[in-house]
């Protein structure tokens, strides 16, 4: 597939792009900074500028595409990850502006150029726990996509708006538009660097529901979204199968969630941020568990 990928130079994006390249896709990365990765094409552009998004959406990906003499090829899919990635990086209103206007521009341009598959990055923060002022707990566990999205910060607000924007575009266009509520992304080097600290103080993982998503498994999830058609508008939690600390799920419930209703029995190390929907509808099959990577006796 010929894919336009926004934000491919970021922490999550660069691993997703690498995975898509390995699967044989052609990727044009649209970002403010280029991605230095063999096989990827780059275009420097600002997602908040509608004109620039229309330009890249109707652009050659590289010089080789000039050779056939048949005009600019159409993109088969758009993956939209570009965003201000969290609070406390820019002013709150600027974070909200960039993320919401950027998403509108990307989806609008994609649909007007005939793209029928769009995947966009939403966030775990939409559930209102991650950047809450003080202690906030889920309404129930395990946390699925039906849980209310009631954030109070500009970043998470922008992601909720983006989901509504995407749903409205899908209703009019009939295209497939899938949103990924991405949990805390872990790169391969993060396991040795960060996880020993999680073992010493599991409470530092509370705002992330003690969950994580391996960046390589996120790439796999994006690829599954590309291959599964006909779902219309859908939102998926993106997380690995197990949680990120050396406690059982039952121990974490006793210590942190004893007053939170449980909707079902959970497995010994099962993540609270359930990925069951992605598994059922997309065939998501995460492969990178920190216990295997670091050893169970950490």
From TrEMBL:
Residues 3-189 form the NAD-dependent epimerase/dehydratase domain. InterPro entries: Epimerase_deHydtase, NAD(P)-bd_dom_sf. It comes from the Bacteria. PANTHER family: NUCLEOSIDE-DIPHOSPHATE-SUGAR EPIMERASE, PUTATIVE-RELATED. This is NAD(P)-dependent oxidoreductase. It comes from Roseinatronobacter bogoriensis subsp. barguzinensis.
């Amino acid at each position: 597939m010929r894919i336009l990928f926004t934000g491919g130079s970021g922490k999550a994006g660069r691993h997703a792009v690498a995975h898509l390249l390995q699967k044989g896709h052609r990727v044009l990365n649209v970002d403010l900074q280029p991605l230095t990765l063999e096989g990827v094409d780059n275009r420097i552009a600002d997602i908040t500028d509608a004109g620039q998004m229309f330009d890249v959406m109707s652009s050659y990906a590289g010089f080789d595409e000039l050779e056939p003499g048949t005009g600019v090829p159409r993109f088969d899919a758009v993956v939209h990850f570009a965003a201000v990635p969290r609070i406390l990086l820019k002013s709150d209103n600027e974070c909200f502006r960039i993320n919401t206007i950027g998403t509108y521009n990307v989806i609008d341009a994609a649909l007007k150029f005939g793209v029928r598959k769009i995947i966009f990055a939403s966030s775990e923060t939409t559930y209102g726990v991650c950047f809450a002022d003080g202690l906030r707990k889920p309404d129930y566990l395990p946390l699925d996509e039906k849980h209310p999205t009631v954030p109070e910060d500009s970043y998470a607000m922008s992601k909720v708006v983006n989901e509504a924007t995407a749903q409205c575009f899908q209703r009019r266009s009939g295209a497939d538009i899938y949103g990924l509520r991405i949990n805390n992304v872990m790169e391969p080097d993060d396991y040795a660097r960060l996880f020993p600290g999680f073992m010493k103080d599991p409470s530092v993982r509370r705002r992330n529901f003690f969950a994580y998503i391996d960046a390589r498994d996120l790439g796999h999830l994006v690829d599954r979204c590309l291959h599964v058609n006909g779902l219309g508008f859908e939102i998926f939690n993106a997380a690995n199968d197990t949680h990120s600390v050396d406690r059982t799920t039952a121990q974490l419930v006793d210590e942190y969630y004893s007053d939170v209703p449980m909707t079902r029995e959970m497995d010994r190390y099962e993540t609270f941020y359930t990925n069951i929907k992605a598994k059922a509808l997309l065939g998501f099959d995460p492969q990178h568990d920190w216990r295997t990577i670091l050893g169970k006796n950490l």
